[in-house]
Structures are given as C-alpha cells and as structure tokens.
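Table S4 entry, NAD(+) diphosphatase.
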Amino acid sequence: MGFVNPQTTVNFVGGSPLNRLSWLRTSRVFIDAVLRSPSTRWILFNSREPLLVSHKDQPTVRSLARLTTADVKPLLGPEPYLGQAENDGDVAPHSVPALEVARLRGPKIVFLGLEEPHGTTAFLPSSDFSGEEALEVVAERITGTPYFSLDVSDVDSSALGVLLQNIQLTKDGGQVKFSEARAAMNSMNWFDAAVFAEARSMVDWNSRNRFCSSCGSPVYSLWAGWKLACTTTLPWVADQAKASGGKPCPSSIGLNNFSYPRTDPVIITVPVNETGDKILLGRNAKWNRPVYSALAGFMEPGETFEDSVKRELWEEAGVKVWDIKYHSSQPWPFPANIMVGFYATASDSQELRIDLDNELTGEWTDARWFTREEILAVINHPKGTHFRPNSASEPGDDEPPFRIPPKTAIAGVLISDWAHGQSLDANCASPRL
C-alpha cells in the first residue's frame, strides 16, 4: 500500500492552536499573571456542556463564548484563585510541591494554553518567573491570548443566570447558552473545536475524579488543573496524621498515573480487500438508521497498535488482517480518547462473523464489503454524510441507501480518502506477510 505522509493530515478537533506551556503550570507567578491579563479568555462548561454564543444577524452560527476575567470574577471566589493555602486569602509558599498552583476551593479551573500572535512560538522560559517581580510586570511580558476553562456545574443556577445576563458578550447583543457537547462541536470552526477538545477532556477528568484511588480521601487540584493530589498530602493534614501515628497515603510516594489526565487510545480501522476495490464497514447496534462506519475498539494493556487492530477486526467481524498501515489520529473528547486510524488488508472471501463478541457487547448488527462506486454514491448524496444515526427517517425522504460518518470524524476521513484514492495506490494490492 502507498500512503500520503501522515504529517499532512490534521483531523477535525486536532491541531491544537494553543501553546500549552506545560512547564509553567507549576509557576504561581506566571499563572497569577495570566489570570490578571485583560486579554485572558474563559471557556465555561456546565455539566460538561460548553457555553456557546450566537448573534442576531447569524443566529445559526455558534462559537465558543469567550468570557473575560472580569466577567467570571464573581465565580472564582477569594484571591488567590490558584496557589491557595490552608485558609482563605493565604498564598501558598513557592517551596511546597504539594501546593504548586493549588486550587483547594471554588469551581475547577484549568489553564489551557496561550494563543500566540500570528502563530509565533515565542514562549517564555520558566526562569523568567522567579517570584521576585510584581505580577503586573510579568503580565506585561506576556503576548497573546491566554485561555482557561471553568467548570460551573456546582454554581447556583440562578446566580449563574444573573451573571450571564451581565457579561460583556450579552451586553454586546450576543445570545449565550450551554449546549449539548457533540452537537456543539460539530457546529464549531477548527480553532474552536480544537480548544473545545482540550477543555472538555480536562473538565471531564477533573469532575469525574473526586477521590483518591489509593485511599479514598477527597482530592484537590494542582498545576493549574493538570494534576490531582490526595488531600492527605496537604502539609497541615499530613502533619496531623503523622502526629497521631497515621500512615501516609500510598499516592504520596512515587509517580502515580491516576494523578494526571488520562487519554485512552482507540484503534479505528478500514479493512481493504486484496484487489483494493472494496472496504469492510460495520453497522452499530445503537444506530436506528442504516449507518456504516469503520470498525473500532479500545486498546488493551500489553498491545501494540498492530496487535489491537488484528484483535478488534477478528472480534468484531471475524476477519484476519495484515499489512496494517497508519493513516492519522484524532482526539475525541467523549470523554478523553485518541482515535488512531489505520488501513489493513483482508481477504473478502472470508466469512464475516459479527456474533463472536455479541455475548459481551452486541455491538454490531451487520458488517459488509462495499465497492468504491457504492461509497462514492453515498458521499455525493446530499444526505449521505449527515450523521444523526438515531433520528428516524420521515416518509418521502430522499434517503441514500446507507450513510457514512462525515469528515469531522476520522472514520469519515478514512472512508473518503480511500474512495477518492487519496491515501492508497490505485491498485491497493498488498502481499500477505
């Protein structure tokens, strides 16, 4: 098989436009400075749904609502917003790792990164933030637009409603509303979608993980939202436990994967027959419409990508595959997956089996081979890639014979690229290895 350079493929919600400045997440001086920057913008989530804005002249065009720090200040609680210590108003000392840019109280905050002007990468070294300069001086050296997310799920709904009526966007005539996440993402431009993917995954991780995986105690936020730690490791709590003869939480020793955001890899594969003129797609049991897509599944511990592709294709369709080739990847913030796309070769003379793991999941109701002509006919149909698989067709609708995912999903990209010959050589035949 011949493939385009995967470096040229950037899928929807990928290609993050922000410099995440990960090495500065532990710098209270830097984070405090960007919090105070007039250019800082906040993305709000309520029960994992993003706040969107539309305008009267284009009511169907919605984008992420970007609030200023002045807008959200009533929600943040007393200062310091990050770098908190035991009591309200106390600032955590720089020398205590357990309090590095900690947030112990108030709605969860995550520093997403910096949109740098004109795509530059003039990032600042951490040595520029020694803690000896005034925050105003540090803030003046920061160019670009810092982004934060704020989870308002636990904020009183009436208070939140009053606040949203008085933000600058509303005063300027915008209409803001929390919207269902998947539908919202599909209506976004590429910039907003990429920021949304990072923000929603981080909001989800922070909201789901409220207790320590080692001892069950509550956790708190560090590193501007990028680390969770057990509250038993807080200096004043640890001192009390030590004085009473208590044992430290196991999470206080070594590196623990549950302390950091997780991303779950999912392989997604389009099998191509040996002559290169057919692909194998499956229909998911949860789809009311006849929608066919690439076969996918989570990787398991101890697997390579290739191992996972072979196992998933055997489990889901009963086919053996070889000559596995990587295409591209796509972050998928539901809740925090990375979709890793592949093509693989398979014989279309193999008996298809969708019953092998039905006792476990019942995931697929059908799997079949489609010709290039069949796929192109659907792609060219006005409704062929309108992907609302659980909505019912109305009588008289001009329906395509089946549907496939749009190119906002990596499955749609894999299918479309094959159909248009953009990822495979014309004959697409591969020797069995």
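The chain has a mean pLDDT of 89.
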